[in-house]
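Please fill in the sequence for the structure shown.

STRUCTURE ENCODING:
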């Protein structure tokens, strides 16, 4: 691949990427940090990751009560064992691990965020919330992987393959060749999903994938979850490059104000003719 094409695709990815973090996040979700072990937030994240649990975090500056804080306490008592909770005082240096990792120091507080076991931020609350709202943010394992990749500013190759699907190696061939380029590999993530996995029923349904799918399928996804393209059976590096170039052209050509696609540039309004500035 020429350096020109590599540069073009890097530009495509930078344009396509829009973090879905509900707070002002850093470029990556940083979990592999090594702060003092007494930091309660980092300790809670580490424990949740080791046990496969979600973490509900209350960020606050004071201990004053509010509807949000009351909801945190009430809901926290009724959630399943799959969800733990921790309170972080953003004014205390010894509790700054998660504050810095998720850039919430200057966010409106108090605020509650939900973290997946892999560190992906699945949602947040700035006002009172319910148990059902929290449980809606408890994503499946594959959804967690995809979301974390989006929050790390990557595209995702979601590979639908199982023991009963045909063309599995051929479907991965183009993806592997695409990611052989070191410049492009760091911008992408490969996530596998079995069409018969009952834990992924919701995601499979959203993608229109049936459990009896007979041939491997490959989805190319861009943040914050947009389907760029889909291939049934074999893939090729050339087809992937073409899909990304098409995505870039579509973004550049979009002239619909407030079209709703966050990756599109909002057209500038033309200046009125004549008059006095």
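FILLED IN BY: designer on duty
SEQUENCE:
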């Amino acid at each position: 691949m020429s350096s020109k094409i590599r540069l073009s695709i890097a530009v495509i990815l930078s344009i396509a990427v829009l973090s879905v973090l509900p707070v002002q996040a850093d470029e990556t979700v940083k979990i592999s940090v090594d702060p003092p072990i007494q930091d309660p937030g980092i300790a809670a994240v580490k424990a949740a990751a080791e046990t496969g649990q979600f973490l509900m975090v209350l960020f606050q500056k004071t201990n004053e009560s509010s509807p949000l804080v009351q909801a945190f306490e009430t809901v926290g008592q009724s959630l399943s064992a799959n969800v733990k909770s921790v309170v972080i005082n953003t004014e205390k240096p010894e509790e700054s691990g998660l504050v810095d990792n998720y850039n919430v120091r200057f966010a409106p507080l108090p605020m509650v965020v939900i973290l997946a076991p892999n560190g992906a931020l699945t949602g947040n609350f700035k006002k009172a919330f319910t148990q059902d709202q929290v449980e809606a943010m408890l994503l499946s394992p594959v959804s967690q992987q995809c979301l974390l990749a989006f929050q790390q500013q990557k595209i995702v190759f979601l590979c639908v393959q199982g023991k009963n699907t045909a063309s599995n190696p051929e479907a991965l061939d183009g993806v592997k060749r695409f990611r052989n380029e070191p410049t492009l590999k760091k911008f992408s993530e490969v996530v596998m999903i079995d069409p018969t996995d009952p834990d992924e029923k919701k995601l499979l349904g959203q993608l229109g994938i049936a459990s009896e799918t007979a041939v491997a399928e490959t989805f190319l996804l861009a943040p914050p979850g947009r389907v760029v393209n889909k291939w049934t059976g074999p893939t090729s590096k050339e087809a992937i490059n073409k899909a990304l170039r098409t995505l870039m052209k579509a973004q550049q050509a979009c002239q619909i104000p407030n079209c709703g696609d966050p990756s599109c540039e909002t057209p500038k309004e033309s200046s009125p003719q004549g008059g006095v500035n």
